[in-house]
Amino acid sequence: MSATIRVPDVGQNQAVDQVAMACERIAPSWPLDRWIAVNPWWGHRHQGIEEAAIELVSRRGQGMLMAPEFYLEAWHGGRIRESDLIAAAEAQGVDRPTQLLLEQLSRLRQRDVKPGLALSHIQPSGDGDALSQTTQFLGLLCGRYFDHRQGQWLTNTKGTDLYRYWLSMAGPRGLVSKALAAQLPDDWQSAADFLAKALPYTPDQLTAAVHALLLHLPGWASWCRGEDWRASLDGQPSHLCHQLATVLLACEWMAASALPADERAKWQQAVSGGQLARHAHGDDALVWVWHRAYEMAWQRQFRDCLRRPAKQPEELASRIPEVQAAFCIDVRSEVLRRHLESASAKIDTLGVAGFFGLPVMHQKLGPSDDEARLPGLLAPAYRYVDTLGSLSADLERNRRLDGREQVRETVRHAKYGSLSTFTLVETTGLAWAWKLIRDGLHKNRKTRETAPEGRLFHRYGGDPLSDPERVNLAEGLLRSMSLTGDFAPLLVLVGHGAHTDNNPNQAGLACGACGGKNGDVNASIAAQLLNDRCVRAGLAERGIVLPESTLVVAAEHCTVTDQVRLLGETAIPASHQRIANELLQCFESASAATRRERAGRLGLNGHSDEDLLKELNKRTQNWAEVRPEWGLANNAAMIIAPRHRSRSINLAGRCFLHEYRPELDDTGSVLSALMSAPMVVANWINLQYFGSVTQPSLYGAGNKLLHSVVGGNIGVVEGNGTDLRIGLPWQSVHDGERLRHEPMRLTVVIDAPAERIEQVLQAQDDVRALVENRWLWLWRVDDSGLQQYSDGCWVAA
Questions:
Q1: Whole-angstrom Cα distance, residue 634 to residue 623?
Q2: Cβ count near 372 (within 10 Å)
Q3: 520 labeled part of a ligand binding site
């Protein structure tokens, strides 16, 4: 192998900036135990969605949409009507007759796009092509580098960055030449400069090449990007994605050095011809027309639902509710809310972000790590510390839990000892026999934790929150859900979460936003704040009067069984016992109705209410269950409006519902917060499901049955693969026969004046990018009807 690419002196240029621009294209990922749904194209938000898709095809060979057969089936099945196709063609600026659009789609075949990388020009060997060999090796290397918990022989990487670790491992393996590796600088910044001068790329081509390389190792690229993201939230510098990009670029340089003369000429011609650049193709516009028609077909039905006469505010105001139940905006809450309102006219429901405005870390008693209880896009500001009520009791509990964990850790170490590998099963096997039998019979019922008691402290410094700070949190929560007066006697804050067993992807079912954590802790903290007399006095000074007759309680909705339990039920005073008892009866009725509605999608039709509950409870305990529930599958819309806009409408569990009353938001600050936080989170959830369906090999997690967990909580690999799988397992979007998620962009409906919405768009760059570049659809509603935001104007929807 001879080095034919020149070796320059290392100097200062813009190479590091170009590498950073490529890394910005990569969306972050989160650990399994803190999982959040991620928009896989977040780095492309400032591009039009069609333009981003073309770029991805040119650099990875995969776009964003379904195969033509999917849209043909929707056409022949009547899902897409001719009127939808005509409207979509007009919206996309395509002037073709319907019949021609159909004929062209029928003839369309997948284009084979070869990225313009030197690694892709190396002739395949018996072990696969050079690009796959390189990414396979780097996947193994990243697994060793980042695994500080699970590996049997852990690698000591402390103080060594990823780039230097690769250099230390870069012996004569595959395309890695020891002689070439020895020419590379010791730090990644200098190496990036070196490689930029050694390769025949312009600055823009360098960014395109680095992006293409990262797209061929998407799992570990996303992990590194996520580590950098989380470090930045804590104000810490981190450049792991830049280092991985530099490593990949070094492999590209070595591949270019290894190319025979004729292949090198072809590669350089591809580079100069802009093969990594964006090139529009007539087929691209065609498929986008069909996809837009697919979306319009559902939007037509959705629009008809919203136009049905809804209960007017005066009708609702004519009776005083006994209960106001605030649920997370999660689409699974919509079904339960609808049935709960049907169960009693005395109950109103509201929607609010399920972390209840509390950016907290939860510190349990015992040796467990702190748990982030907030959306992954935010940094925690406070720590909530559990307590039994006294320092001596806390110390005793910590001592007991620490001792138990030490025993467990001893067994873990013994499992991986060189000699105990042969003796551990024989000596301890019988001790585990009952557990295996119990788990196999689905008798491993876990006790649910009770509502935590604790105290709030600042995350840094450890000082308790002052009364004004606690009032700020309480006020922010109430204003965010437009609840500043007319309080019911019982205000219930309903968190939610999934309860499953032996499931690496459990956090993805628990919540799509809040680090995969259930909402019980946040609901309990919020209830404690709102019941506090000092907090209520501070709220009254700010114009929010919570009467003494109003009691705030926390609850949790299990999204597998749809059962709801009140937290701290025994502490409810006699004055509110009747209302609480009636509410529990209504919860039981609503839960049963919700289970019946969901039964068909879970293949459980025909069961009695009692048997259906047993079957769903079994799913929480069955260690072999791969589809305990559908999570947020089939999400399609978000409504930011008063509940009367959607009350009594069957939205089929497809809508995020956030309460918003425009008349209480004169400055527009509440709407700005909702559009820049919950709406963005809903977009991330929506597009992760979208990508996991349309491009499962790139943006999905593959077959859940073949998963192996990496590093305890880092992620999963599939089969004998070495790259992390990002996104959702196939079992979360497909039931074995058909898709359970319809891939379409989120339709957001807001009840607010047009100028107020436009004010937010002008002030929030990311929000404006999502809307104007068609990563979601923005509508507004008022008493005159529905309008859609298009090219800076509002048109009839």
A1: 25
A2: 25
A3: no
For 672, residues 6+ apart whose C-beta sits below 8 A from its C-beta are 759, 760, 763, 764
Q: How far is CA 158 from the centre of its chain?
A: 30
* Closest residue by Cα to residue 82 from 63, 65, 95, 101: 101
Predicted local distance difference test score (pLDDT) of residue 7: 41
- DSSP designation for 731: G
Owner of token pair 């990007």:
225
| Beta-sheet strand order (sheet of 347-352) | 347-352, 323-328, 490-497, 551-558, 564-567
What is residue 352's three-state secondary structure? strand
Mean pLDDT of the chain: 89
Name residue 473's amino acid: L
User: What's the predicted TM-score (pTM) here?
Assistant: 0.93
Q: pLDDT for 395-452, tens place per residue? A: 887 788 777 767 666 665 565 555 555 565 566 666 656 565 666 655 555 545 555 5
Q: Which of 58-67, 360-369, 400-409 has the highest mean pLDDT?
A: 58-67
Average pLDDT over residues 13-30: 94
Q: Is 511 annotated as a binding residue?
A: yes
Does 609 count as an annotated binding residue?
A: no
Burial 228-267 (b: 16+ CB within 10 A, else e): bbbeeeeeeebbbbbbbbbbbbbbbbbbbbbbeeeebeeb
What percentage of the chain has pLDDT greater than the value 90?
A: 68
Q: What is the mean pLDDT of residues 280-294?
A: 89
Report the distance separating Cα 80 and Cα 72, nearest Å: 9
Tokens coding 273: 């011809």
Chain CA centroid to CA 278, Å = 28
Sheet holding 371-373, edge to edge: 371-373, 360-363, 382-386, 454-458
Is 305 annotated in a binding site? The answer is no
